[in-house]
Inverse folding.
């Protein structure tokens, strides 16, 4: 008896699994499949990407479907069209030998009229994105009143992308007698709320630790000055010549800037961001999957739901706005039992965010050293020599030209010939990394400031600085704290010398002061920035600071607090935000 047969999987589906090369079930499959086939109950599955979740819910979906019934019986909701298409493709492959069961994928970015026609031809299982399915329900183009099993795949990502209302509306249309399976890599309060509202005494199945990253992934942290972020990225890429990676950036503009630099310098790279059309996105992903592209530079939103195998690295060019997103980013590598590396490139002011991620992952980051120019050149040279050693010589093609080649090179001895041969391919690396500086940070900004002898001078002239007040529409509930605010200003401006005055943070807003000499650059700091799914709006000259009532408070509807402390330099931990910085 095969391993899948012991789980209760039917012979037709086992044939499909064998054709795909499935040998034994993964841990999540061993636990979920019997729970759905034999116990008929609600299940919450906590597992990372790449653990075999699609087969865990896809096999029961196919086996529980009745081909003779015309109504839709199974529903899978996915956060993105990319994942939606992939799940539908996998279900069709699992059910290759199951006659009569039809699987349809519906998602945004494709013709809704075509999708309606396909649904009318019959759909036993519908795989959908929440927005498109909600639209189809409103048009009465799909009937989910007879659903027997609903799967919420990557529920935490769906909620973070703002699909709460659509999920509520969709689930309200399903029968109370259905079973619900909720898959999530993390278990934030929003996901727990969905489970409480729509699931009855669910069985929780956890593979690994709650909210923890995959054990197959190394987590490495490189600390550099903000201005050295791109040079550090290039060295990390160069010292890993076989890298197949996704680089995550915070904004579309940063994605474009990083990718443009890489492409101009000869790297096989491209972008994935929200401004691409579906056809452009598909074209990029096709190139990336077949490894004609080695590096994909993407935003979080664009990369959600990507299903790409064999990634060697995930690089966090910037840390995500929501630290829970780090789990999703890093989970793109180290899949299906393979190993992977997740890298973060930070400056000193982001150390607290790394500690928060470590706490969530229950894993410590390795301290990485940005390789020197000599390290990079050595790795690249040895890689090239290995390639030469392994090349297959087609003597039939080369022999007619060999005499002429030998005559041209006859004046060089063996050593000179080797040096010239290596230089043909290697001169650009030698030139770029000649006299390359050390990019690793060895002291904190505060230590360097104090050692410079200017701290006392700075304190004496602080009172002469003029400040401009700004407000933001995000606050503590969105994960905005003083260290994050200051880090964002320093990161985008590339300067740690912008003086910050008073900062007051409430649950849903921030008021802060900036040296008026830099007031014009502040709006650009928050341009196109999304925090917790919310677009950040910055306004000038609003928000009165107030005197705390029993502690730190807000700034709405109260008189300005005249006893505020002197302004301070960005990054120096003192003043009214010291307490808040511990909460990041």
């Amino acid at each position: 008896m095969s391993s899948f047969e012991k789980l209760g999987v039917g012979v037709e589906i086992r044939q499909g699994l064998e054709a795909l090369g499935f040998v034994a079930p993964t841990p999540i499959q061993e636990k979920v499949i019997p729970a759905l086939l034999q116990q008929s109950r609600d299940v919450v599955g906590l597992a990372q990407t790449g653990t075999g979740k699609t087969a865990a819910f896809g096999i029961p979906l196919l086996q529980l479907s009745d081909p003779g019934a015309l109504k839709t019986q199974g529903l899978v909701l996915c956060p993105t069209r990319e994942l939606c298409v992939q799940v539908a493709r996998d279900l069709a492959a699992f059910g290759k030998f199951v006659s009569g069961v039809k699987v349809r994928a519906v998602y945004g970015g494709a013709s809704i009229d075509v999708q309606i026609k396909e649904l009318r031809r019959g759909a036993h299982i519908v795989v959908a994105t929440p927005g498109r399915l909600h639209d189809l329900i409103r048009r009465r183009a799909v009937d989910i009143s007879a659903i027997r099993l609903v799967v919420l795949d990557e529920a935490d990502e769906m909620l973070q992308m703002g699909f709460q209302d659509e999920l509520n509306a969709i689930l309200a249309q399903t029968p109370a007698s259905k079973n619900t399976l909720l898959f999530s890599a993390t278990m934030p309060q929003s996901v727990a709320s969905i489970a409480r509202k729509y699931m009855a005494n669910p069985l929780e199945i956890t593979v690994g630790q709650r909210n923890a990253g995959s054990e197959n992934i190394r987590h490495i942290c490189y600390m550099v000055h903000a201005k050295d972020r791109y040079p550090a990225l290039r060295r990390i890429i160069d010292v890993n010549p076989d890298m197949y990676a996704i680089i995550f950036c915070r904004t579309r503009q940063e994605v474009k800037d990083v990718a443009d630099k890489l492409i101009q310098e000869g790297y096989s790279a491209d972008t994935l961001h929200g401004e691409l059309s579906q056809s452009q996105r598909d074209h990029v992903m096709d190139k990336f999957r077949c490894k004609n592209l080695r590096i994909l530079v993407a935003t979080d939103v664009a990369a959600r739901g990507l299903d790409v195998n064999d990634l060697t690295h995930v690089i966090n060019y910037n840390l995500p706005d929501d630290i829970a997103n780090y789990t999703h980013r890093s989970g793109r590598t180290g899949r299906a039992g393979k190993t992977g590396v997740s890298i973060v490139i930070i400056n000193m002011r982001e150390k607290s965010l790394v500690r928060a991620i470590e706490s969530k992952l229950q894993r410590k980051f390795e301290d990485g050293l940005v390789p020197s120019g000599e390290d990079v050149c050595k790795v690249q040279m040895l890689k090239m020599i290995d390639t030469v050693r392994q090349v297959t010589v087609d003597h039939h093609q080369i022999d007619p030209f060999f005499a002429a080649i030998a005559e041209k090179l006859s004046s060089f001895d063996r050593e000179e010939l080797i040096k010239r041969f290596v230089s043909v391919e290697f001169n650009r690396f030698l030139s770029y990394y000649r006299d390359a500086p050390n990019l690793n940070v060895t002291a904190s900004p505060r230590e360097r400031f104090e050692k410079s002898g200017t701290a006392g001078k700075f304190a004496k002239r602080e009172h002469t600085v003029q400040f401009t007040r700004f407000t933001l529409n995000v606050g503590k509930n969105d994960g905005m704290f003083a260290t994050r605010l200051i880090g964002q200003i320093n990161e985008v401006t590339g300067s740690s010398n912008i003086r910050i005055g008073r900062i007051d943070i409430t649950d849903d807003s921030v008021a802060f002061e900036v040296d008026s000499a830099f007031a014009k650059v502040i709006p650009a700091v928050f341009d196109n920035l999304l925090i917790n799914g919310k677009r950040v709006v910055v306004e000038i000259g609003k928000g009165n600071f107030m005197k705390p009532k029993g502690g730190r408070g807000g700034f709405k509807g109260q008189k300005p607090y005249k006893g505020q402390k002197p302004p301070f330099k960005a990054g120096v931990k003192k003043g009214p935000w010291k307490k808040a910085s511990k909460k990041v």
